[in-house]
Amino acid sequence: MALLDLLGRRWTLRVLWELRDEPLGFRALQAACDRMSPTVLATRLGELRTAGLVATDDAGVNRLTPLGAQLMTALGPLRDYADTWAEALAGPPH
Prior knowledge:
This protein has 6 helices and 3 strands. By secondary structure, it is mainly alpha-helical.
């Protein structure tokens, strides 16, 4: 599945996650993604644009497309499960 291949690439989900609430310029997005190199970020943004999940306007601001926002909604149950999983791993409070 092409989508799972794309989402499995390093930093791809992080880029989508950082764009979930607000559009960000390149530098702001790089800062939000901590250690990501500018080359990797440019590559991931290009891949996400090609996939129709992210759009970049003339001012260089990146935002989720409606398709990208729909993907983030679809991933919501996985995020909920991840929270439950993390709590279960933590075990009872000491």
